[in-house]
């Protein structure tokens, strides 16, 4: 009867074509229709029960779930599309979606926001002459929970009801979502994979060719490609088409997504991998390129990522520096052209340029507001992050540096790119860093949930000038002031060429018998007996020409056979592409680490590559050196971490030469700089903290800069506290300062190591720098105020406290002779402390104040 009415209506509407009965949409093959949860249901809601919108039941229609898409090839055979739309009652009044209908890619209906409480809407569309009809339901930008969407009573009136519309594969979208971030890929009608540009005001469908997700050289893409392949026949074009997507749930609520692409002519497969950590707003990303053919192919470019931004006003915060002056920030607006931050040092990524940066989407980056996305490439070798601005959009291409790195794949071989880590925040750099830190403690560094011991290192105190007796002498005062770990630095090894300066001994990893006649075990045991752990320094990748190793194996070093050797610190890099070198380094590490009592190792690498050349690699594979070095190094690091799971590993490369998440996943912490001047460290730690949590940043108090010891210790206490100092040279008052610092630190280090960081006053902006850390439960907060120049006595305002909790204030590690803060012992609610702040007792230069806010019930 109802169908009859429609026919009558159509006739009344004046369509005199031979209109047939309306066909219920639910009678079509729905197997191609997509749904964000479960599968679309014919004549039932997504739960399989009766369709129902605001208590009205519908016998016919389709129940689906955002995001959902149905594409129908109508072949110009349809006249009208009618439906009643709304969120199904099974959502219990929850959910919010948007319904859209496209006719031949033109938007012909848009519901606006439809919530679980909105009344049903009726659609009646003239689609005469339309070839492609698309029915789309998307979430309302707030996640897709409860988005049960009904196309109730949906019907198509056809001219000829013998010719049913054909359901096509949906215009497939692949959505990668984290708490505040959404990356969308779209499969085009040409089966290419496109990326919806980040920040685009509107979704462009179909996507333009410029939006191709992983641009390939030779496929009509006229900008810098992410992938350049030379096929076995010399052809330089690649044209990848979408094959499928696979989503796998991982532990910790993470998800891995693999999007498979395949060249439409050549036997080449490229998988785009993503690992999503929705709660922490982190996306890790890498590529796997697979040569499925019979011949050899060459990869000339193989970026890890190539995100596209529709933000012509994008700002880039990046970091540059030098030895002992790492990590200087600079923020700039990207302008048309290519801005490239890159490094070609071979054995390390950082020092001059960091492989970590921030893209700010709303103008210059700010601490507390604006959308920002941090990127960090997990790679310790040559890298490039190139930002190509084409006048309206920016493409970020990050990965191994393509320079001199052509990589050949034989039949059946694959290549995996380094991982790119992206962290997103809608509330500025502060929130971005806290997310990064939470992710890093969980997935980026080892044992990120275990606070670190305080440590004394002998390097700044003794340099190379020590023997067992001198080191023995350092132990009792170290134990007495409260250290928990003693780390013996460079200079303990070498026999024929003893390591008594930096010109000899590297490579000969046997204890120097003159300095340690019974090996290293006695000194390790001595430390243990005095209540400390014992750590040791190694530099397994290097050799001094004055060494037995070099005498025996001059061909084991990276060099160019007809060039004079270029030394840095009188040393050369061993060629890790050579299996014997891998084996040698592995046993050197094993021998050192298995010394009884050794439970910590500082792994150093004091030079980079300036003469790339390998006597091991064949002449047509010399370009593999850069990449193979780093991958083999990771294998060595991974073996070490696996074989010595209880040994703490500190990452060092002549200061901050290897500060990246590629190496850090095998390490507990890193040495950020050979510059231990406390004033410089305030800024350095601030800038590293954009990406790295305090638990991973070694901060050793030393005499460098000659600053008051109270200030220097307070700076170290805001990261992983250590000291590089000769305790025997200190006055009684200075010893008391060290003792007070260590004792206070032990009481609150869990807040520094495991809590949330709030950067409050930047050392780059004024006379003072302030940061505070808040424990995960917001029970405690530790605030550090560093007066860098003398200035006005302004109050400091903590951040991140629970506004309703009341906190009592205590000054910790007070400077002797200085009155405590006036508010010492007072209690107020979190919001009052945050609004009113605390007036400090000093504003004199190079003085520090440490405040603890303790929730009253926790005292
Ligand atoms: C590098 C490190 C220092 C120290 C020396 C030892 O420079 O950064 O901390 O270990 O090597 O040679």
If you had to describe this structure to a student in words, what would you say it looks like?
By secondary structure, the chain is α+β, with helices and mostly antiparallel strands. It is built from 13 helices and 50 strands. Residues 1-19 have low confidence and may be disordered. The structure holds alpha-D-galactopyranose. Alpha-D-galactopyranose binds at residues 459, 489-490, 537, 604, 606, 652, 654-655, 671, 674. Alpha-D-galactopyranose is lined by residues 459, 489-490, 537, 604, 606, 652, 654-655, 671, 674.
Taking pLDDT < 50 over at least 5 consecutive residues as the criterion, the unreliable ranges are: 1-19
Helix percentage? 10-25%
Number of E strands: 50
Write down the overall geometry: globular
Count of separate DSSP helical elements:
13
The overall pLDDT, averaged over residues, is 94
Which ligands appear in the coordinates? alpha-D-galactopyranose
Q: How much β-strand is present in the residues?
A: 25-35%
End-to-end C-alpha gap: 77 Å
Class from helix and strand fractions: alpha+beta
Radius of gyration of CA atoms, rounded to a whole number: 32 Å
Question: What summary fits the major beta sheet?
Answer: 10 strands, antiparallel
How are the SSEs placed, and which strands pair?
Layout: H1 2-12, E1 22-24, E2 41-42, E3 51-53, E4 56-58, E5 61-65, E6 68-73, E7 78-87, E8 96-103, E9 106-115, E10 121-126, E11 132-139, E12 148-158, E13 166-168, E14 173-178, E15 181-187, E16 193-196, E17 227-230, E18 240-249, E19 255-263, E20 268-277, E21 282-291, E22 297-309, E23 315-322, E24 325-333, E25 337-343, E26 356-360, E27 372-378, E28 383-389, E29 394-400, E30 407-409, E31 414-416, E32 419-425, H2 428-444, E33 455-457, H3 459-462, H4 468-481, E34 485-488, H5 521-529, E35 533-538, E36 542-543, H6 548-552, E37 572-573, H7 579-593, E38 598-603, H8 625-643, E39 648-651, H9 661-664, E40 669-670, H10 678-688, E41 698-701, H11 709-716, E42 720-723, H12 732-754, E43 756-761, E44 768-774, E45 780-787, E46 795-796, E47 806-812, E48 827-829, H13 830-836, E49 838-839, E50 847-855
Parallel strand pairs: 33-34, 33-42, 34-35, 35-38, 38-39, 39-40, 41-42
Antiparallel strand pairs: 1-12, 2-5, 3-4, 5-12, 6-11, 6-13, 7-10, 7-12, 8-9, 8-11, 14-15, 15-16, 17-22, 18-19, 19-20, 20-21, 21-31, 21-32, 22-29, 22-30, 23-24, 23-26, 25-28, 26-27, 27-32, 28-29, 36-37, 43-44, 44-45, 45-50, 46-49, 47-48, 47-50
The structure holds alpha-D-galactopyranose.
């Amino acid at each position: 009867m109802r169908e009859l009415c429609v026919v009558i209506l159509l006739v009344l509407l004046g369509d005199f074509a031979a209109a047939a009965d309306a066909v219920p949409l639910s009678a079509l093959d729905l197997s191609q229709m997509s749904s964000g949860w479960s599968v679309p249901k014919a004549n039932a809601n997504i739960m399989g029960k009766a369709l129902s919108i605001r208590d009205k039941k519908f016998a016919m229609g389709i129940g689906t779930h955002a995001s959902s898409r149905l594409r129908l090839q109508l072949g110009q055979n349809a006249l009208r599309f009618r439906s009643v739309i709304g969120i199904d009652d099974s959502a219990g009044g929850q959910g919010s979606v948007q319904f859209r209908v496209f006719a031949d890619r033109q938007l012909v209906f848009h519901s606006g926001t439809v919530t679980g409480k909105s009344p049903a809407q009726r659609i009646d569309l003239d689609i005469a002459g339309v070839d492609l009809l698309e029915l789309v339901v998307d979430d309302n930008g707030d996640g897709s929970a409860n988005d049960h969407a009904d196309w109730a009573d949906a019907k198509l009136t056809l001219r000829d009801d013998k010719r049913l519309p054909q359901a096509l594969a949906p215009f497939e979208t692949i959505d990668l979502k984290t708490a505040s971030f959404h990356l969308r890929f779209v499969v085009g009608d040409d089966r290419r994979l496109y990326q919806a540009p980040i920040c685009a005001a509107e979704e462009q469908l179909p996507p333009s060719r410029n939006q191709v997700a992983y641009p390939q050289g030779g496929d009509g893409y006229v900008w810098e490609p992410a992938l350049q392949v030379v096929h076995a026949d010399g052809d330089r074009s690649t044209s990848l088409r979408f094959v499928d997507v696979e989503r796998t749930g991982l532990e910790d609520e993470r998800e891995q997504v693999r999007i498979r692409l395949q060249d439409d002519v050549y036997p080449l497969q490229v998988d785009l991998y993503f690992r999503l950590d929705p709660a922490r707003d982190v996306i890790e990303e890498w590529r796997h390129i697979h040569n499925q053919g019979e011949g050899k192919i060459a990869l000339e470019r193989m970026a890890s990522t190539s995100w596209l931004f529709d933000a012509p006003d994008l700002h880039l915060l990046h970091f540059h520096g030098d030895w002992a002056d790492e990590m200087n920030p600079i923020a700039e607006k990207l302008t048309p052209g290519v801005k490239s931050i890159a490094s070609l040092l071979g054995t390390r990524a950082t020092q001059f340029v960091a492989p970590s940066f921030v893209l700010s989407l709303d103008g210059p980056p700010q601490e507390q507001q604006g959308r920002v996305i941090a990127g960090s490439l997990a790679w310790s070798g040559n890298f490039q992050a190139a930002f190509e601005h084409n006048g309206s959009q920016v493409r970020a291409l990050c990965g191994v540096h393509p320079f001199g790195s052509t990589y050949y794949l034989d039949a059946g071989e694959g290549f995996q790119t380094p991982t790119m880590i992206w962290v997103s925040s809608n509330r500025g750099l502060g929130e971005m860093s806290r997310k990064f830190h939470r992710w890093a403690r969980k997935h980026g560094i080892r044992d990120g949930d275990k606070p670190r011991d305080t440590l004394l290192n002998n390097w700044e105190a003794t340099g190379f000038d020590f023997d067992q007796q001198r080191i023995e002498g350092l132990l009792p005062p170290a134990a007495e002031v409260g250290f928990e770990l003693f780390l013996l630095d460079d200079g303990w090894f070498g026999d024929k060429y003893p390591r008594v300066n930096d010109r000899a001994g590297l490579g000969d990893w046997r204890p120097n018998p003159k300095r340690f006649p019974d090996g290293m075990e006695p000194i390790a045991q001595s430390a243990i007996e005095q209540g400390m752990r014992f750590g040791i320094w190694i530099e397994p990748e290097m050799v001094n020409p004055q060494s037995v190793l070099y005498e025996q194996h001059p061909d084991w070093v990276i060099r160019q056979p007809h060039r004079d050797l270029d030394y840095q610190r009188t040393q050369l890099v061993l060629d890790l592409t050579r299996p014997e070198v891998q084996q040698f380094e592995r046993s050197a590490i094993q021998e050192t680490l298995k010394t009884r009592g050794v439970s910590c190792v500082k792994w150093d690498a004091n030079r980079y590559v300036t003469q790339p050349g390998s006597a091991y690699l064949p002449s047509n594979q010399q370009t593999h050196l850069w990449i193979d070095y780093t991958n083999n190094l990771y294998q060595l690091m991974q073996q070490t971490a696996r074989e010595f799971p209880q040994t703490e590993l500190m990452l060092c490369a002549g200061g901050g030469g290897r500060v990246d998440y590629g190496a850090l996943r095998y390490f507990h912490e890193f040495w950020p700089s050979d510059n231990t001047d406390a004033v410089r460290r305030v800024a350095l730690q601030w800038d590293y903290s954009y990406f790295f949590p305090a638990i991973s940043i070694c901060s050793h108090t030393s005499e460098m800069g000659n600053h008051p010891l109270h200030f220097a210790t307070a700076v170290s206490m805001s990261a992983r506290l250590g000291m590089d100092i000769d305790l025997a040279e200190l006055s009684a008052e200075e010893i008391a300062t060290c003792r007070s610092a260590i004792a206070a630190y032990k009481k609150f280090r869990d807040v520094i190591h495991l809590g949330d960081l709030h950067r409050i006053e930047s050392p780059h902006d004024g006379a003072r720098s302030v940061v505070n850390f808040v424990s995960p439960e917001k029970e405690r907060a530790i605030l550090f105020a560093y007066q860098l120049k003398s200035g006005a006595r302004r109050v400091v305002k903590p951040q991140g406290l629970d506004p309703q909790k009341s906190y009592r204030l205590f000054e910790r590690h007070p400077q002797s002779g200085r009155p405590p803060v006036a508010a010492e012992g007072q209690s107020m609610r979190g919001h009052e402390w945050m609004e009113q702040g605390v007036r400090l007792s000093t504003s004199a230069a190079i003085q520090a104040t440490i405040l603890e806010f303790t929730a009253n019930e926790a005292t």
